[in-house]
Design goal:
This protein is α/β, with parallel strands linked by helices. Helix content is 48%, strand content 15%. The protein is built from 10 helices and 8 strands. The longest helix has 21 residues. InterPro entries: KR_dom, NAD(P)-bd_dom_sf, Sc_DH/Rdtase_CS, SDR_fam. Belongs to the short-chain dehydrogenases/reductases (SDR) family.
Length: 278
């Protein structure tokens, strides 16, 4: 046992020296800020080549610049994840630049909160389009790069779909968001069953309160423009205080960096178990 532990420790040291994701390629959507930005920077630090995607081209390019200044490798592919041409655009750009895809992190999204009885159709439809249809279409487009029949050609490959505790438990004012995030869980389980035989892992991370613009005070005025409309983001200050005091034992929400570390855990499981069992 001690000899095996020594081998594992030695392998971890060697892996860490070149990065846990050395030479691997990751597409991360919604990577211009928040959890996505933290994940992009963390993945690059661990040796991954990162495709930074965001609706805001300027923010995506700033993240790429930050990664490159730290001697990492990244490209920016901006655009609306729900656009018809987006999956082809980002997959083609990734293959052209890096020649392969190891990981997809479907993180892009936003909230469009309304009470159920006042929720309009467009607020329902856009949330389903961005949180469910867009990840599905991107994953489908990338299928040839994941469904690899020859075991000897397979590398560490995974899909991580970001969900929410709203999708597990529901949430006041979030019928659209809760339904979409619940659908993400079902989508992920199906990917695992269909692509598991090809050595592909699929996982969902259902985050609770992470300190991003979606959970900041609505009074701060953050918004996003969708289909030409300004959508207010955030939570009323009174609700924030209630959420923290009633539901979070630590008395605070998680940070984007902490959330990114959880994503890295699932992306790196293949390397860990290969090391442990090899």
């Amino acid at each position: 046992m001690s000899q095996r532990l020594s081998q594992v420790t030695g392998h971890l040291t060697n892996t860490a020296s070149r990065g846990l994701l050395a030479g691997e390629v990751a597409i991360i959507t919604g990577a211009g800020q928040g959890i996505g930005r933290s994940a992009a920077i963390l993945f690059a630090r661990e040796g991954a080549k990162v495709v930074v995607s965001d609706l805001d081209e300027t923010k995506a390019k700033l993240v790429v610049e930050e990664i490159r200044k730290a001697n990492g490798s990244a490209i920016a592919v901006s655009g609306d994840v729900s656009a018809e041409d987006f999956p082809n655009k980002i997959v083609d750009a990734t293959i052209k630049e890096y020649g392969k895809i190891n990981h997809i992190v479907n993180n892009a999204g936003f909230t469009f909160d309304r009470m159920l009885h006042t929720l309009p159709d467009d607020a329902w439809d856009v949330i389903q389009r961005v949180h469910v249809r867009a990840p599905f279409r991107l994953i489908r487009e990338a299928a040839p790069h994941f469904r690899i029949k020859q075991p000897e050609l397979r590398e560490n490959r995974s899909i991580v779909n970001v969900s929410s505790t709203s999708g597990l438990h529901g949430n006041v004012g979030q019928a659209n968001y809760a339904a979409a995030k619940a659908a993400v869980v079902g989508l992920t389980k199906t990917i695992a069953k269909e692509w598991g035989p090809f050595g592909v892992r699929a996982n969902t991370i259902a985050f609770g309160r992470i300190e991003t613009r979606l959970t900041a005070a609505k009074e701060d005025g953050a918004s996003i423009k969708i289909d030409g409309k300004e959508v207010a983001l955030g939570i009323p200050k009174a609700n924030i205080r209630a959420d923290v005091s009633a539901a979070i034992p630590l008395g605070r929400g998680g940070s984007p960096d902490e959330a990114a570390a959880a994503i890295l855990l699932f992306v790196n499981l293949y390397n860990f178990f290969t090391m442990l069992l090899g």
